[in-house]
Amino acid sequence: MRFCVIGAGAIGGVLAGRLARAGAEVTAVVRNPAHRDAIAQTGLTLVDPSGAAHVVRNLRAVSVCAEAGPQDAVILALKAHQIAGVCPAIRALFGPKTMVLTLQNGIPWWYFQRHGGRFEGYCLAALDPGGAIGATIEPERVVGAVAYFAGEVLGPGRVRHGGGARLPVGELDGKHTSRAAALAAELVRAGFESPVLDDIRGEIWFKVWANACFNPIGALTHATIDRIASDAQARELLIAMMGEARAVAAKLGVRFRQTAEERIAIVAKVAGHKPSMLQDVEAGKALEIEALAGVLVELGRLTGTPTPRFDAVYACAKLLDKVVADGRVGFLATRNATA
Hints:
The chain contains 13 helices and eleven strands. By secondary structure, the chain is an alpha/beta fold. It folds into two domains: 2-198, NAD(P)-binding Rossmann-like Domain (Rossmann fold); 201-330, N-(1-d-carboxylethyl)-l-norvaline Dehydrogenase, domain 2 (Orthogonal Bundle). The longest helix has 22 residues, at 200-221. The protein is globular, with a radius of gyration of 19 Å. The relative contact order is 0.11.
């Protein structure tokens, strides 16, 4: 199976490296010139969770989709707000049966495509304003996925797999197809735990449930996950937001298999971990506001579910995103720069 990974950063780099190391034919579309050149010249160095380094030399790195040519599977490893930017070029990767596997944090743009419910075909404005992504990537191509593994870019041509290997996949209509089975088999061969689910949306919600709450709180406060969970007032806000998210999900027929307290206890075990949105604040990068918070506000309106805490936190995080874009990346970065 021929794979093209768009975005060979933390998650995409680990996935591309492990697939190629397992013998798959993999091309990575890499935007960072130094990262791309290092992979092309000396291979991708993949550091596994034990600390052992493996040089993957059979991974092809290109700068644009047109250089890769038609693929069997395209893996979108970009952040949600970056997908629209690749739409004009991505169709160069498509053949008649090309699959598109999505790995974004948060609710995906395709959520109501092939959904079958009362909102069938509804375009989420927070994620796909104007419907450009949905018009470029046909629903029939999409296979959903949820990444439960950590990655980190250590430098040009070097990525670290920080742990975890669960990567469930699923068709949007819940069917168990031969293509989903073939895709899962390739992922298993690369060392991932990759079951084919009949309710990929439920799995996405389960991950979103905590992420959508911890992330904006962490970005706004510069607090790590364990500190958010242990602070009485922050925890109260966290639980209230999780309650609102759960109520929205219930209106869409989604049920969670844990209580908010149980989920918080599991997530908070990662002591000292900075939520990804906080990492982006400190790096001066655009935040995943819409996929993790804005879409919850939109879904609340759509389903007639009050989300007052999400509304307030989203408004503050949205302003923070503008401040980051202006080059003011928060008090920790400023303090460190002037120390």
